[in-house]
Specification:
Layout: H1 2-13, E1 21-24, E2 31-33, H2 37-42, H3 61-76, E3 81-83, H4 85-90, E4 98-103, H5 106-116, E5 122-126, H6 129-136, E6 144-148, H7 160-172, E7 177-184, H8 187-199, E8 205-211, E9 223-229, H9 235-250, E10 257-264
Parallel strand pairs: 1-4, 1-6, 4-5, 6-7
Antiparallel strand pairs: 2-3, 7-9, 8-9, 8-10
Subunit structure: Monomer.
GO molecular function: 23S rRNA (adenine(2030)-N(6))-methyltransferase activity; RNA binding
EC number: 2.1.1.266
C-alpha cells in the first residue's frame, strides 16, 4: 500500500515540468534481499508482495508502475530483491528532480550510500530525522514530498514524536506534501494519534488505511495507514481504487477493510 501510494504522489508531481524534491526521513538501505537471513526470519513478504497478482484486472497506472519498478530491481540484482521506498521513489524521478535520503542507523546509512553512490541527483545523509528534516526544508525546488516512516518500535504508543515532527516541518514548508506511514495494532491508540494530528491545526489531512485483520485484534500488526498532508487533486479517489484492489488479495480475515477519509478538510 505504502509504495503504490508513494508512486501515486510522485506521479502527481510529474504534472508540472519544473523540478521537485523527494525527502525520505528514515530511508533504510534502499532495497533488500528477501532471500537473506533477516527477511527469511520474519517471513513478512509471504503475507505481502508474495500474495499480489500483477495480472489481476485493474485500471490503475500506479499499480503498473509499481510492478515495473520491481521488475527493474530484479533485473538489476536478482528475483529475490524487493525495493524500499527510496527505490520506488528513484524509479519515479526525472532528470531535473532531486532525492534526499536520511538514515540514522550507521550500518543502514553506509549501505544506503553505497547503493546510491553512482546517482548524482541523490544525496544521502547519516542524520537523525527529528533534527535533520527541518534543517533541509523548504528545498530550493519549492515543490516536493516528504515521506516519514520511522521505526515505530522506538516510538511511544500514540506517536507524539511523529506528530511534533510533522507540525514543525509543516510550519517551515506549508505548501509541501507530507506522507506518514504508521502501523495499526490497536484502534484506540490510532484514535489518540488522530486527535494529536487534528490538534496541530494543519488542514488537508487525508487518511488511507488497509487492515488485513480486524483493527481491534490484539495479536499483532492488523494493518497500516498512510496520512497525507496536502494530497494532490483527486488523489483520494485514486487511492481508494488502489486499496480496494489490494484488499481481497491481502486479506487475512472476513472483517478486513480498506478506507480513505479526510481527517481534516480544507
Amino acid at each position: 500500500m505504502k509504495h503504490i501510494l508513494l508512486i501515486g504522489l510522485l506521479q502527481s508531481l510529474h504534472k508540472k515540468d519544473n523540478a521537485f524534491c523527494y525527502i525520505d526521513t528514515h530511508a533504510g538501505q534502499g532495497w533488500y534481499d528477501l532471500a537473506a537471513a533477516p527477511s527469511q526470519k520474519t517471513g513478512e513478504y509471504l503475507e505481502g508482495i508474495r500474495k499480489l497478482n500483477p495480472r489481476l484486472a485493474h485500471d490503475i497506472p500506479w499499480v503498473d508502475r509499481y510492478f515495473s519498478a520491481l521488475s527493474a530491481l530484479k533485473e538489476q540484482f536478482s528475483k529475490a530483491y524487493y525495493g524500499g521506498s527510496p527505490w520506488f521513489a528513484f524509479d519515479n524521478m526525472r532528470p531535473q528532480d532531486r532525492m534526499v535520503l536520511l538514515e540514522f542507523h550507521p550500518v543502514d546509512a553506509e549501505k544506503l550510500k553505497y547503493n546510491f553512490h553512482y546517482q548524482p541527483q541523490v544525496a544521502v545523509h547519516h542524520r537523525d530525522a527529528y533534527e535533520g528534516l527541518t534543517a533541509l526544508i523548504p528545498p530550493k525546488e519549492k515543490r516536493g514530498l516528504v515521506l516519514i516512516d520511522p521505526p515505530y518500535e522506538e516510538e511511544r504508543q500514540d506517536y507524539p514524536q511523529v506528530v511534533e515532527l510533522l507540525a514543525k516541518a509543516h510550519a517551515k514548508w506549508p505548501t509541501g506534501t507530507f506522507a506518514i506511514w504508521y502501523p495499526i495494532k490497536d484502534r484506540i491508540l490510532i484514535e489518540r494519534f488522530e486527535r494529536r494530528l487534528v490538534k496541530t491545526g494543519i488542514r488537508r489531512q487525508l487518511v488511507c488505511e488497509l487492515c488485513v485483520m480486524p483493527d481491534d485484534n490484539n495479536l499483532g500488526l492488523n494493518g497500516s495507514g498512510l496520512l497525507i498532508v496536502n494530497p494532490p487533486y483527486q488523489f483520494s479517489e485514486h487511492a481508494d481504487k488502489v486499496l480496494h484492489w489490494l484488499l481481497p488479495q491481502l486479506s487475512q480475515h472476513p472483517m478486513a477493510k480498506a478506507s480513505v477519509k479526510w481527517l481534516v478538510g480544507e
